[in-house]
Specification:
Helix content: 40-55%
Number of helices: 17
Strand content: 15-25%
CATH topology of the largest domain: Aldehyde Dehydrogenase, Chain A, domain 1
Family: Belongs to the aldehyde dehydrogenase family.
Radius of gyration: 26 Å
Pfam family, one: Aldedh
Keywords: NAD, Oxidoreductase
Structural class: alpha/beta
Number of strands: 16
Low-confidence stretches: none
CATH class of the largest domain: Alpha Beta
Protein name: Aldehyde dehydrogenase
Number of domains: 2
Shape: globular
CATH architecture of the largest domain: 3-Layer(aba) Sandwich
Length: 480
């Protein structure tokens, strides 16, 4: 372990203890205090939007400025504003019914209490949104937070450390940057809650570390998200809707379109619609200024290995765009949009999440065949269907399980600030965004206030004749 790794771990331990002490001293911030914290976020990201865009461009090799503004700045600002506007509703007590014959006019309610100090390990694909976005619900719930940005986006991590440090007190929100050793240590601390976004394999390690300390976790992981087309839905408009999502971050999104199901007799039409859309909107996909690069050579080589495996199996491959270019220190890694027709079962593309500009296309002759194929795999973050046949849409929705479900769209379940977002099974657990996120980072404390007109003698030990008579009535005479 290097000196830098030791220093980062020491910094983490120090700020962790500082936040733990601060939480115990002031465990329940007022709504005004929470609102003030949330209202600082829009100004922070908007004032530093240019710097964040430059940092993302540096980390990726090439990342369009508008993509940063849309997905890592404006969306975060809106999420903070929404959380601030909903504070009174989210934090309100939820009263529950009580048996009046026993409890009289007593009260029972759920009170949402801050959990304490929360750790956040965001992924590299949305290094701002996955850092500051969940922070909105964490602060709304009254918590303190420590963030460990991905080591694959060091430039963004440096900017985040600076601007968050200038906006929040260190004992409220802090950023600690470092490499793999810091990441491994991060999940071993006694957090009050831990959020991890990334691969299923690393998520399993994070959960195992957290389990040793009984730390509750929220895991936002990967998944092979299917996109189903019925015959009448093969239109330019629907292709535009699907490709608008696939082109976001160049496919490097956990809820992106992973593969498509298309009627067997229409695969050529589907391919031509995609080609026409790409050529008419961005031209050469590989070099298009609207498309960000593959983040690094590690990811480029991973995607290349999937395609090499498909070629060795004589699978039909169609490249939309000029030839791929592996980057170096001065040039980004670029790939064409690559369509792969009916990858062989068990192939790398069939088994692994794509997470890039490759689209496997599977053909089907019967809709039940599609449902069976989806059911046989792990539960994904999203299931998407393009269809005007409501009966088939409902059949797909009711016979599959996923973190989200979209009709005539893809990925939009993760873009709603008012709706909880997450996976299921191997694609994740727990939710953030909206009231579900607020509750995820809160302790739903059950509270009872007993009134003087109670009849607790009916149930309290030691049990006597009063209890006997009560139980005889309650059980219909079963107790003699």
């Amino acid at each position: 372990m290097t000196h830098a790794d030791h220093a980062a771990i020491a910094q983490l331990e120090d700020v962790f203890q500082q936040q733990k002490a601060a939480y115990l001293k002031a465990p329940h911030p007022t709504l005004d205090e929470r609102r003030e914290l949330l209202q600082a976020i829009p100004g922070m990201v908007l004032a530093n939007a240019k710097r964040l865009a430059e940092a993302l461009n540096s980390d990726y090799g090439y990342h369009p400025e508008m993509m940063t503004y849309a997905h890592d700045v404006v969306s975060v600002a809106g999420r903070a504003q929404y959380a601030a506007s909903m504070l009174e509703t989210w934090t309100a007590r939820e009263y529950r019914e009580m048996e009046p014959h026993i409890y009289g006019s007593s009260k029972a309610y759920i009170e949402y209490q801050p959990k304490g100090v929360i750790g956040n390990m965001p992924a590299w694909n949305f290094p701002v949104e996955l850092t500051v976005g969940p922070l909105c619900e964490m602060l709304a719930a009254g918590n303190r937070a420590i963030i460990k940005p991905s080591e694959q986006t060091p430039a963004v991590g440096e900017v985040l450390a600076e601007i968050i440090g200038a906006t929040f007190d260190r004992d409220r929100v802090a950023v600690v940057n470092g490499g793999i050793d810091l990441a491994k240590h991060f999940s071993t601390l006694h957090w009050d809650h831990l959020l991890y976004t990334g691969s299923t394999a690393i998520g399993r390690e994070v959960m195992m570390n957290a389990a040793k300390n009984l730390v509750p976790v929220t895991l936002e992981l990967g998944g092979k998200n299917p996109t189903v087309f019925t015959e009448e839905a093969l239109t330019p408009e629907n292709i535009r809707a699907m490709m608008g999502m696939k082109m976001t971050k160049n496919g490097q999104v956990c809820i992106n379109v992973d593969h498509s199901y298309v009627p067997a007799g229409s695969v050529d039409r589907f391919v031509n619609l995609i080609k026409d859309f790409v050529e008419n909107t961005v031209g050469d996909y590989t070099q298009a200024p609207q498309i960000c690069s593959v983040i690094n050579t590690r990811q480029f080589d991973r995607l290349g290995s999937y395609l090499d495996d498909a070629r060795q199996r004589d699978t039909a491959i169609i490249e939309v765009g000029s030839a791929a270019q592996r980057g170096d220190d001065s040039t980004p890694s670029r790939m064409p949009l690559t369509l792969v027709i009916n990858p062989e079962q068990g192939s790398l593309l069939d088994r692994n999440e794509v997470f890039g500009p490759i689209l496997p296309i599977y053909t089907y002759t019967d809709f039940d065949q599609v449902i069976g194929s989806i059911q046989s795999g792990d539960r994904p973050q999203g299931v998407y269907v393009f269809s005007d046949q409501q009966e088939l849409v409902d059949k797909l929705r009711l016979n599959t399980s996923s973190g989200g479900f979209c009709v005539n769209a893809a990925g939009l379940q993760g873009a709603q600030e008012s709706m909880g977002f997450g996976g299921v099974g191997k694609s994740g657990m727990g939710r953030h965004h909206g009231v579900e996120g607020f509750r995820e980072f809160s302790n739903p404390r059950g509270c009872v206030e007993v009134a003087r007109d109670n009849n607790l003698d009916l149930i309290m030990s030691p049990h006597g004749e009063v209890t006997r008579e009560f139980l005889k009535q309650a059980t219909g005479g079963l107790l003699d």
